[in-house]
Design the sequence.
């Protein structure tokens, strides 16, 4: 008997009728002979409603109490799901993150999972019960306080439980069919990927593909747990994310991201320690820097550009200006209307000429490239925000990532 | 520095604005130099809303999961209250029933408090924090499961915490001004009692006075914790319930109850063991019997009457009919349109003639008495339900329990 972990998001358990549908699906998996751990998010907009309630009282709620408040959300959905399974004659038991032994650090609101204490879940599985676990929450063994995991936390809960209890797969149920070669809202002909490697999925997630957060893919890779992203509305396979050994497609997909701004520090003296000064200062201010590009200098001066979340651009500008003054650099400017397109594919490692084809495809559309950054399996270009949809379509077409291309035998 | 326990019901914390008002009151108590433990119920209709959600999924939810669901309610109100205290610059921390060490048996939905493990609360008090505790909930040390305490559970939580941590008073904040000599909705001139003994309050609660449940009064009496029932809308004193040693008023008040039905078994053979057969059978069926009256027999046959909650009258009838058949008794009938009025007062023990005055007052209004039952400090009469308001007013007037009588020097 193999163990399957299933994770259902807030939309999938949005009301009692949907909870009943989820229960039937779990009952079906159970009748096929599997042990099942189910991870649930809070129903629909519950979390947002609770945040709004807190907002009526204070704009700066203490983190501990905010976590106490928000963890009420999954408590409701998991108890209702256990009741719905009871109706299906499936023995089930619901556990909070703390009861399920999800151990975290004590960073309220954005805690990281540090370990799993699995006795209680293991005992319930041995008793032939479906175990339902509240996603997004845990407990700090140091402070004994309840914590929440921040964005994508329920996926992380699911993959971590799958790793700890030796599941054969972690199924992430969602409202889309899987991972696509590009965002279907931008490229309607984008193709669903049947399979993608952990490394590629990590690059796609980091480059803006929203289906799965990078942290849960990291977990999957570290413990080699296959992740199956699939729709909660039908039974067809979605996308399998795993450490694949088969011959891979050269290119998996195109991701895009318009959530970042570009900051450029001009005329920086080209001497050791300059970049360190700048990025240490930014880190101290809590600014999350994504891409960094510095050109080779010939004049003894250089420009350094980097991207940051748009919400942090004001803080980044202030910090960069201060550092620029100290270093005797020129001015700092921020460009908000910025976007990024990334081509991801494990085949890039061995296939040459991919970068050239990317730049050619964008040039053919008259798109100017601001910054370029590459990893062994990714090429990212920062461009004008208004050019992003055109760029995504151009790359999908150039690398035959659409279903039309597939049909004609690409 | 003395410890005060304050309990706020669902209406008092019904929305963010009210939660802020409660926070100011707590902050005021804190600034007066007291340590404070606050017990809160779920906001407004939260509990009913959660019950309705469960009802959309099943009519028979597993008790464990129902408790998991309902305990989300206080989690929300207590976290919001902690945030509101933070705004008032009062250090506070909120605890679930389990975190506050409220130990119970494992009877989900109607658990009894079996003990308090107070380390965590004590430590927070020592750290000069206001401690907020979720009412109505606890944890069973045997099963490690979260439980709820059933009706009146938050009051019981408050009094139990007051006893365990040595509070000087347990304040129960509510939407009425205190305990009255009669229900003010029936007798608008009913008088607020400044003080009432535990014994009297127990009889009043058992006789239908709804302000406080008998179980929390029991706790208060057992551990001698004064309970102060008062309004959350103003600062005036309400009613103190304590083990009073002062000279007491002869009569404290009139309670009434229209939630019970009367069952009569006719022509029962007057022989030993008959009553035992009947009431053992009823107990086995889970029927809660309140009053029991059996008349002296002269003919070798007698009638036995008893009252039960109206909701249990069908079960009571079926059981009584079966026992009647076995015993060779006559028929069984149930009367639903039944009510009970009770006069309560510690002074009855020493003052003679009270019973006569009760019966005279009712007779003067043409009210027929069906059943009579007495304790040392209570006289209860079962009458026609439609006569109840008239009977309450008659007794208030006869024993000068209204504020009009007080003004003229009663």
Sequence:
């Amino acid at each position: 008997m193999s163990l399957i972990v299933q994770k259902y998001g807030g939309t999938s358990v949005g009301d009692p009728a949907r909870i009943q549908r989820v229960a039937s699906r779990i009952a079906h998996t159970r009748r096929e002979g599997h042990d099942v751990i189910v991870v649930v998010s809070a129903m629909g907009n519950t979390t947002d409603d609770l945040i709004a309630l807190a907002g009526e009282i204070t704009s700066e709620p203490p983190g501990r109490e905010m976590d106490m408040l928000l963890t009420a959300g999954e408590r409701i959905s998991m108890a209702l799901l256990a009741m719905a399974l009871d109706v299906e004659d499936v023995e089930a038991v619901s556990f909070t993150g703390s009861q399920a032994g999800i151990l975290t650090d004590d960073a309220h609101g954005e805690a990281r999972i540090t370990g799993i204490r699995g006795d209680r879940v293991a005992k319930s599985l041995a008793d032939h019960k479906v175990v339902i676990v509240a996603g997004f929450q845990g407990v700090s063994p140091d402070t004994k306080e309840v914590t929440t995991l921040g964005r994508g936390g329920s996926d992380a809960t699911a993959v971590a439980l799958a790793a700890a209890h030796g599941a054969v797969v972690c199924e992430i149920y969602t409202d889309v069919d899987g991972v696509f070669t590009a965002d279907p809202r931008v490229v309607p002909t984008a193709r669903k990927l049947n399979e993608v490697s952990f490394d590629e999925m990590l690059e796609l997630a980091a480059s803006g593909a929203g289906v799965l957060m990078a942290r849960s893919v990291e977990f999957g890779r570290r413990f080699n747990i296959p992740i199956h992203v699939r729709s909660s509305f039908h039974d067809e396979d979605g996308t399998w994310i795993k450490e694949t050994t088969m011959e891979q497609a050269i290119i998996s997909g195109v991701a895009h991201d318009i959530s970042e701004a570009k900051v450029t520090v001009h005329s920086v003296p080209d001497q050791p320690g300059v970049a360190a000064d700048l990025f240490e200062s930014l880190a101290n201010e809590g600014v999350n820097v994504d891409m960094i590009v510095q050109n080779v200098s010939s004049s003894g001066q250089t420009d350094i550009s980097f991207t940051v979340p748009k919400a942090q651009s004001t803080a980044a500008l202030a910090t960069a200006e201060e550092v620029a003054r100290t270093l005797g650099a020129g001015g700092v400017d921020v460009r908000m209307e910025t976007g990024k397109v990334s081509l991801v594919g494990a085949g890039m490692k061995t296939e040459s000429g991919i970068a050239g084809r990317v730049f050619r495809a964008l040039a053919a559309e008259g798109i100017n490239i601001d910054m370029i950054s590459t990893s062994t399996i990714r090429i990212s270009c920062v461009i004008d925000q208004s050019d992003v949809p055109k760029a995504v379509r151009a790359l999908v077409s150039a690398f035959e990532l659409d279903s039309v291309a597939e049909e004609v035998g690409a």
Q: What stands out?
A: The first helix of chain A runs from residue 16 to 31. The longest strand of chain A covers residues 260-269.
